[in-house]
Records
---
Amino acid sequence: MPVELLINAIIAGLLLGGFYAAVTVGISISFGILDIVNIAHPAFIILGSYIAYIVNQTLGIDPILTAIIVLPGFYALGAAVYQVYYQSFEKRGQDALRGLAFFFGLLFVTEVMLILVFGVDYRYVQAAYIEYTWHYSFMDLPFRMVIPCVVSLLMVGLLQFYLSRTFTGRAIMAVSQDQLALQLMAADPVKIKRTAFAISIATASIAGALLIVIQPVEPSVGREYIGRVFAICVLGGLQSLPGTVIAAMLLGVVESFTATFYGPSWAPAVSFGFLLLTLAFRPAGLLGR
Amino acid sequence: MRSLYFYISSILVGALFFAFARWLGNDYLFFAGYTVLQFIVLATAWNILGGYCGYVNFGSAAFFAVGAYSSVAMHKLAAGIDRYFPESLVGLAKMILPLNVPTLIILGGIMSGLIGLGTGYLTLRLRGAFFAIATLALAVVLQTLIVNWDFVGGSRGAYIIRPNEVPILGSYIQYLFLVMLVLSVVALATARIIEQSRLGYGFATIRDDELAAEACGVPTLRLKLIATTISGALMGMAGAPFPYYIGYLEPSSAFGLAYAVNSIAMPMIGGTTSWVGPLVGALLLGIIQQVATVTISSAVNLLIVGLLLVGFVIVAPKGIIGLVQDFMRERVSDGGRPTWRSRLAIFANMRPGAR
């Protein structure tokens, strides 16, 4: 029945959108708050997926648990990438053109390395909840989608709490607005930015694990997410995490509708078309500054 | 005078290489050479927008593919004249179709140029990073459209049967090679003319400080539209003969990330401020890739490109040309008399201090 199909499409879209929030939150911090155009973020997410896959295959540990365990590793990786970026581009004032090329190269190198090591086969993980679906009258709630959505919203909530309540979090929000004022408060802008960027990469670990729970992953899957994350981030008004969640849900629902009513082969165009239109007509985002 | 030297020497170099390859009589040389020349065109085209104006285009593959697919569409049209044309026009259509490769190149150029203009209108009021992301989005939107367009083969791809022989030259690949050789000279000449004209200085003001340029009365939006159109058109021209070269075209190969990465990496590694940069970068990377594809593997050659790109933007932000410039600056300053080095520098429009 169309109405039931419609409601199921909305539910699937909201669940998908919840997951998109986890994918985008890293970009909202690095691009939205810090103004670092990290287009390599999806590559780090795929890296997270592959780590979850390896650990799941060899030790049988749950992918999401793995992601939490390797969180410090991703944090360190993020700090290292920021250090290189800061020393070579930001400090010299060349961040625009060459910084972009740097991250583009990073994206490409990560993808090719993953292809060289793992090949282009689709990989997937095993966990008890992936097979399970909860039925309520005509509604389907696949746990493969519910768990990522819940974990993602928890993570975004925690980050929002951190950014708005702690000193470092507030400093991160402030660093994009006024660096001098931040220095007067005895906080080192570079150190704050490094922390923030490291956190943004750390979220990629969790997002990667969630991704491989939802769908099988191969190295070039990340590219589809470039458009999605930037579409959501821009639509959500760049620095606002609640805005990110709303925009993610919106895109999730629109994509789910397209896939249900027009066929999945049109789905990639939706997010990117969404992005093009947003950039052209509402560059300040939904909640606009 | 300098322009005359440029044209004579580029035609001479091209003719010499062509004669050399014919003398060796190995068709592989033409196949490999075609790819390198194609990258020269792509890199030069990217540099017109990316290097001169400072707007990074991640969607080179999309413009390339639009050129390629406009050729495929014309090929399909020619194959089914009776089906697609009304009775009265069949005779006329048979006279025109199938189009020859140079006409297809012009057609591909027009199509991609229009796409470039459209992208410009849609996105160029955005600055910097937003433009780059929008071009990435454009590539995916266009790819999805092509995948869902059955006339040009959709996701199954399309076969193009090319003629085996052409009059005078003999083998078809030599003909394609020659066409691409001419096209790369045209692309380099375009870049060089832009560099030395008011247009080039206008572009440079946009790159250096767009807000200040606009305040001084530089028509920035119009200049940027010109840049996206020229850049897009050249990329489409590079793509137009591609179906005839490869024989079988499918969306994921035409929109491959390799084109986007290469057309950014080559100017970045060569140097972005002069037309020589993309040329040097394309020759270097193109030849390395051809060698690596044959000797190691095609995945590794992409890794090399990526690593070189990351390495160069960190260590030598001005590219090879920048390194050479620094080297020549020392030489010219102590002598005062023109040496062969300074003459070369003037010829290549990269004399110390200029731009």
---
Amino acid sequence: MNASKTLTALAAAAALVGTIGYASAQQSGNDSMAPNAGSPADTAQPAVTTPAPVDSSSSTLPSDTTSATMDSERAPQADRN
Amino acid sequence: MRDSNRSLHPVLDGLKQGVVFGAAALAVLLPPIGGAHTTVPRLNPPAAAVADATPRAPRFADFGAETPHEDVRHVADWVADSGDNRHMDFVIVDKRDARIWVFGADGVLKAQSPVLLGAAAGDDSVAGIGQRPIAEVRPEERTTPAGRFVAEPGRNAHGENVVWVDYDAAVSMHRLRANEPKERRHERLATPTPDDNRISYGCINVPPAFFEAVLEPVFDRRRGVVYVLPETKPLQEAFATSYDVAAKHGVSRL
């Protein structure tokens, strides 16, 4: 009877150790995967980002960055009348 | 034999119970662990990846009741639509018609007027002309240059307030001056034709009342953009980035 109890305890302990080991292996496998790499649909999607729309008007703007408000006037000079 | 069989029963019973306990433990522990990866939420695509592809409405210059020449309308519409004026008021000088058009930053016409311009036909300034005395400027060099200029208020050598269009080339917009009576500048400005409005050394002569009522408020310590239309070059060469607003947006101009 004592032998039976001992064997029961050993088998249960072995089963628990195996369970914990299996669960641990599963968890580490999940951690090493990319968040969205789990499904075939995710891996099939190309890594394309849509470029921001280009406003053709902005691309035609001259490169001057002169502000509208003036701090000081240029030196007086003769004009071409 | 019976004794040996009896002695094996406790061993088998113990193994059976151990397997049962282990299976029970698996049943309790595995579902939450094994199902964890199914509960990871999908990451949404970055907001920047969702582009706003909505086309914007075209913007046309507002001429009110005025009817400009086609080149003036083309440039004014392009400026209004593209924002080339960078939120500044802007001016278009039509050399062929000897006329100035003044707009607010929003593309609404403020006023227009005939002007006097450089006596020589041409769209460029001779290099170094801004440093030469006016008496040394030859007749063929008396051009009003074409192009886009960021203009600003200032003073000339006599202390008169002017608007510098091209400071380096000494080209300004100023009140009409009748320094030389034989030039008949006032009379030229008063005639309905632009053919006799070419008399200056390159500056843009504006009626005094127009300068004070329209240009001075626009250039009151502020810059503005002046577009001088060409007379010998093609318009597209002077303003290479300009475009037809109606055609670009696929609409008709009202």
---
Amino acid sequence: MALIVGTGALALVAVARDFESLGLAAPLIGTVAGCYIGATIFLRKVARLADPLILPLAAILNVMGLAAVYRLDPGQYGPTQVIWTAVGIGCFVVVLMVVRDYMLLARFKYILGFVGVGLLMIPATPLGTEINGAQLWIKIGAFSFQPGEIAKLCLVVFLAAYLAERKELLTIASSRLAGFHVPDLKHFGPLLVMWGISLAVMFYEKDLGSSLLFFSIFLVMLYIATARLVYVAFGLLLFFAGAFVGYTVFSHVRVRVITWLDVFDPRYIQDEGYQLAQSLFALATGGLFGTGLGQGRPDIIPAAETDFIFSVLGEELGLMGTAAILICFMLLVARGLRIAMNARTDFGQLLAAGLTAIFGIQAIIILAGVTRLLPLTGITLPFMSYGGSSLLSNFILIALLVRISHQTSETPAPAETAEILIGGRG
Amino acid sequence: MQTQIRRVGIGLVVAFLAVFLQLNYVQILAAERIADNNANVRSLLQEYAIKRGDIITIDGEPVAVSVPTTGRLKYRRTYPGGELYGHITGFYSILYGTSRIEASYDDQLLGESGVITMQDVQDRFLGSGLKGDDVRLTIHSQLQEVARDALGSNRGAVVALDPKTGDVKAMWSNPSYDPTPLASHDGDVARHYRRSLDPNSIDSPLVSRATSRSYPPGSTFKIVTASAALESGEYNPQSTFPDPQALDLPLTDDTLTNFSNTACTGTGEIDLFTAVTVSCDTTFAILGLDIPEEVQATAEEYGFNSPIPFDVSTEASQIPPVPDDEEPLRAFAGIGQGNVAATPLQMALVAAGVANDGEVPRPRLVKEVISPSGEIVDSFPPETIGSPLSSANAGAITDMMVSAVADPSGTGGAAQIPDVAVAGKTGTAQTVEGTNPHTWFICFAPADDPQLAVAVIVENGGTFGSEATGGAVAAPIAKAVLDADRALQGW
């Protein structure tokens, strides 16, 4: 199904340009289709019992993104993104083969935690490169790579393992403050550390989106583990403090807020507000049905192929297209959380929920940004934006979800386990 | 933990729904308002992807054409005639919008005239790019060039039209401007050139003097006053008037004297016919005082007091009603001074109205609209916009105007053409104290079968300075245009 939609879209893009380019696009369409067919067959063998919708949903999003990227730049970005897709599906397969048991990941939690923080911090060191005002990339040879994308996976694994272990400890209320049960102050330590890391990302790498993402995923996981809203409340307080500091200290944060409030102000529309205004023009031009793939002019939007890929599809597919994309994201989030709820272990539940939440929150942050629901913070739209690191990390993410899902279905429910055990003895 | 996970799920779904609602707002509810923003260049890109139709003269000279570019905007407008047609075609500029024909025929030039031809259907299917319709002017390139050359370096205007159809065959206004730099895709080029066209300078090259600047018409207005006199039924060409050296004006000790500061005939009285021939001011001042309402009504039939319906915008010529306590102004109105102001186009229509048996033709600049496949998709039949006088009275006025050119005592001798009866009227209009008078000439020929009506104004007498008269300065320019049209058409 996903393949039909996707290759169809890609073919349409090629046709909209002219008949000749269909020939040029054919090998790319073939590569993508081949990869997904291969991955599906592989899944059948290796993780037969896993949720069957995860990969197809990711494929729909990915291929629609591919079509948009290819439409914007059939010469360079399009083919490159196809290669990254192939590599990403490769990673998906490799992760499923290597991580035979997701519980093993918990063993490496500290290593992964340090690796995650390390990866996050690398771009702030002299190794980092600044692109579009944000210092998020490292350059290795001709490659630029966004270590933050991988770091987010490491940190989710670390947090899941850490919280699964300390869950009870964090939940115990040892003191009362203003009528609330408040856990021991020392348990706020990790929260503060995470806050510090988020702030550091914002300060040194000028990356609001990632900073927001890391901090919110931490809060979400902490809440899931402890059911303590007091952490969330305290976290939000810290967030607003950080946001306020950011607003007063950084002009680029102020600019984001000002252009969000009044994007059509003639004073900003050609400069600071240009990108967001162009995104809104694209969406507005799309209307209900869109201009048709390849028929609009979304190429006017700066960074159309990365942060604003959604607006590109919004112009050419209209509300029909954007609503379809939203539904795919929601379904993927729903399936991910279902996997989390069914998981047999605390670590499994936290890991699946964390991975799903970081995926969903990242999508919401950028979608709300490009539609001017919230101030714009540039991060990639999972599976759709152009960019290798983003694609890789999202394929690894769903590989982990698939692994958890498969393992859950493989091991019978705890109650049944007991019965079988008893029966066995008898 | 299931409960918490479920709650997180609900939170995420709510957030996605919020995005969905916002999308409904941006893509549907507010879409039109958002997309209409000036900073949205989509419509510009779309418009410039169309090969805008050409504007060509009646004799096939292209005066506005679109040439392909290598930039993001696929076509650029250029004007091969340079300054010659600036005030006719107007410009098609990214920074300054459109003007004149480029503005009033924008839909047709963009191919959005609503007439769908087979070519349009073919274009759409084959994707061969959209083409706009061509606009064919009534302007004749040779006549336009003659008008320009005859006016020379003088500030002023020349309007020449066919009095029967209203076809404007030449309309030149000096100084002019070249629309090409304004249509440049390079904003700096356009801005730089635009700045050089200071609209507040005395040259004000962006202003079409022919259609959009009013001058006191002076003695050319006597044709209107004479028409009113005949139409009133109280006067005929032989009606006599006192011929004083100076006319006492009511309510004041001031007098109104003739141009020469003497009486017009020396016999003590003068008839209307002679008054037109020798351009006797006191006669028309008396008429102005005598029949002010008729003069105003007749002027309005000629087109005064409202913008002339035309293919490009025009300024209305003025003859405001004069209250009783300012009665002397009525005398001045009779001789085209005081509060009276007229555009050169208006005065050309006065000549045309007389030439066309008392019917003022609606002037037109556009002959037809032609589709890319060569079909005529729109054309414009002649219309009249006023009937200031009867055919018989028009004949009488024609005779007076012929006399003004042919008679040795006439003021318009410079417009004589051998073997052709030219009907004309000079004007030398006082302006502000200390500046030289504007010189006018309006005419048509041949008198018995009019082919061309012409109005010429030379601001402040041009190179003749204070010695300038309409007969000396403007009449030869009008004659040059008549000669050229005669040579072209063989009348």
